Amino acid sequence: MNRLKDIRFILIFIGLVFLFIFPVLSSDFYLINILSIAFIYAVYAGSWDILSGFTGKENMGHAAFIAIGAYLLGFVSAVYSIQPWLSIPMAAVASALFGIAIGVPTLRLKGPYFALASLAVASIFENLTISYSEFTGGEEGIFGIPFLTPGPTSDYYFMLIFSFISILILFIAGKSNFGLILKSIKSDEDAAKAVGIKTTKYKVTAFALSAMFAGMAGAVMGHFYGYVGPDIVYPLSLNTLIMAVVGGIGGIIPAALGGFFISLLTELLRGLGQWNNLIYTVILMLSILFLPKGAFKTLGEFLKPKNKKNKTPKLRGEENE
Amino acid sequence: MSNILEVKNLIKRFGGLKATDNITFNVVEGERFGILGPNGAGKTTLFNQISGFIKPDEGSIIFNGENIIGLSPEKIANKGLVRTFQIVKPFKELTVYENLKVTTLTPKMKEEIKSEPERRKWIEYIADICELKEVLNTDSEMLPQGYLKKLEVAKALSVNPKVLLLDEPFAGLTVSEIDPISKVIIKANEERETTIVLIEHRLKEFMALVNRIIAIDYGEVIAEGTPNEIVNNAKVIESYLGKGGGDIVNS
Description:
The complex is a heterodimer. Chain A is built from 16 helices and two strands. Chain A is mostly helical.
């Protein structure tokens, strides 16, 4: 196995083992709680990446996908005490369909136009949430959602496994021929069409996949808090984007690590009171200034087993001279 | 030998301007066919129509016995009519190998290539024809222009097309870089039996490469014939050198 020689793979494996035994080592519920939330943020960032990092369509309204999963759970909970085994698949289907519904009309939009359209979608959602407060609870949100599992430790394991499986699926999709085609579309859509790639089909699939995992993660979060409200959903549009970009886009795992660690960082900085925002912002700015490709992507490339075949060719003319 | 591509009375207007004005020509299977014309003559607009990126206002394009007007670029490519771009469009984030791999994942090539070893063999074969073997694992954004031009041809050739539309494959190249591209085009034509339709305005290299030419100017066909006939055609000389250009050449 080549993987065994790949230090990145070993590091992730060690990290996962550590996370799996962490509740045994520590009974600090605060740490267990913030780690649980960080797992979900990893899925938010990873699911953002499969659409935006792979096809180049910068989604500034990822919260809309998350909201579908979370609020669907909220609506159903109002009349029926729905359990995660049912609500998560339901969120998956509903948000994937919604992803397709948003994807089809916005497909032709490029660059900033797509970003603005996605931002608009999330804003419309936020306004609808506030306006139709009889269904959504308005600013207050919806309470009384059945909890994920009976206790914080079992919640932790549920979210760890959910996050692990989600990111693994997204990672495999990104590494597969599907991911390769998405990247070709990102590089040059006309060129992809010119060789016969059905770009529409692939872009819509990326939308569906991205929305599906965001929606499922939204539902898991709703169960975890026992609550769904605008304050835990709508700030996610910007946060997810920042986390993915700081982590590094186009490889799922760097983005997911970005989500995981920035979420932890935000929580841990909370203890610093007024310095919190300043330190957070400075760390983000430094990261973008010095690691523009993304912190974990740069780290990953540094740790990558060196490929000796990589060489830059000379121009024919140069060789002759 | 039959006609593989028949373009009839093709008209495309941009506002008041006729970018292609009643263009008609046939391409015979297996030949290397050239379209000559000065900048702005309507050559690329013609290609954009044949490859489905622009819909013509009037006329018909028959490829392999079938009218392809109104079909999407993807559909046309999957039928075996594939184009390149004058300004190269590599898949920048991907290596050369991955660039070629993407083209084998199209509906057309999924039918022709059944297994992974077969795919690898095909990609290496195409890289061999296009003299890209030594850069297969290089990121395509690192490649110099000469290699990018070869990659542009390789990507199209990797779809195993019946007809290859090459839009100014020599543009932006030094004289020493042109020769390898010419060789690649000839190999594609002779070894892969691909019909070539070539747009160029670099006269010398172009004339050596093609069997038959149409010259267009202001969207109209002004001459048709062998390279020799074309270079001696008064209208062609005029379109390149301006009015009275013929007299200059003759004197």
